[in-house]
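[#protein-structures] MJ: dropping Shikimate dehydrogenase substrate binding N-terminal domain-containing protein here for a structure pass
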Amino acid sequence: MLLPGMAGTVIEDGMPVVFTVRTAHQAGTYPDDEEGIRRMFGMLEVGLRSGVEVLDVESAWDDGLTDALLRLAEERYATQILGSHHVVGRESSMEEAVGFYRQCHLGGRAHGAKVVLSVDDDSKDAMALDAGLIAQSLCASSVPPQPVVPNVALLLGEAGQYSRILNERFTPVTHESLPFVAAPGQLTANEIMATRLVMGVLKPRKFGILGHNIAYSVSPAMHGAAFAAAKLPHSYSLLDMENVEELIKSDFWNDEDFGGLSVTIPHKQNIMPYMDELSDSVKAIGAMNTVVVEKDEDTGKRRLVGDNTDWRGIHGPLERRLGGSEGKDGRGAALILGGGGTARAAAYAARELGLFPIHWNRTPGKARELAEAFGGAAVETLDEDCGGDDGTTCLGEALAEASGVEGTVPVAVISTLPAAAGFVLPQWLVDRSSASSDDNAGAAGKPVVFDVNYKPYSTPLLEQAEGMGCQVIRGSEMLW
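AK: finished. structure tokens for Shikimate dehydrogenase substrate binding N-terminal domain-containing protein:
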């Protein structure tokens, strides 16, 4: 993210940014006279241009300025809008609370609504809390055409701390190491989660990873540690099963506490018929790695959604490295190694990034299948020159054809091959990359090299890439 006015400072962080300008009468300090509000909207536009993930827009101000900002966001940016309203120093009636929530929906243009109310003393806490929760419920079922959006419902002060425990989404927290809280009544994440656990607000859920011959998987240890750190009462099991039918008949699958699954080989396709819905990425990739359990709003019964998060795990790290480089105009190439389900996810991610995928697999037919499904080219060899007219396709010629320039290298290399394969790039590509300038990446530059294996930590390919001076991405970053 580039912040204008900060000497070209670039914030490189995988964490999403919420950009807020909080005015004086909305629990902040920014001037809210006519000139102050005009300047505030100018600052919000700076946040928008900076590419922040979420823009907090106070809903109480000038309709014209608000509309202009929202139109700019809708036309040019992917930033999500959080409509907000804070009431400080006085209580609100239930009717007012309902109005604030609807106001924060910004006429159906907000992606989320945040309302923070005040309460005078403990005796009136329950009444104010009821008003907030009822307002939240009313807005969640607001009539079309306004979409249903997530709502944040909070009460200020110590008397309102219970609302922070009950609030389901995006609860603002403080941290034990901070010298003071940012808002009256703010709690730490540990305090909130511990209280939710004691109160039984959090229902224990059973999760697991489904696969076969997966004794090596670190997923149970990883998820177990995460649940413990976040004070979540959930469990995560290793489900080593030869066939999917064994799972479908099991108590684990049919238990009402079943919370979802990670899915790995060889079941990424076999489990698909048992889903109630498949995401667009699963339909395109033809494989899934996640079972999401939802509740059907009409029947109240559980609903199973198959999703594929592999492509996001590939897309995110590459996007952070490539940024707005020439991959965006469709002329940069990504060399994708392998022909299985993860290679399909890599091809989908490359396509979403605007890259031209070049597929190679030891079985040429699988590479051709990927090219037919996701576009790009399939090559039979990784040679620089095909050396004849026998119809053999090679990497050197595919790169030149993709870019229209001789002597190019891919902007990215994505290997989905097993670590045991010991794959390394051909020497000619190493020489071409090593002789190039970092400032010319993607033409005759150094590729970003991504190996999806997270065990072992270093593979021959990654060691080779580091020796070339390339940026490398390890498979563990897919989980960030």
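MJ: nice. The first strand starts at residue 18 and ends at 19.
AK: one more thing. Residues 126 and 157 are 14 Å apart (CA to CA).
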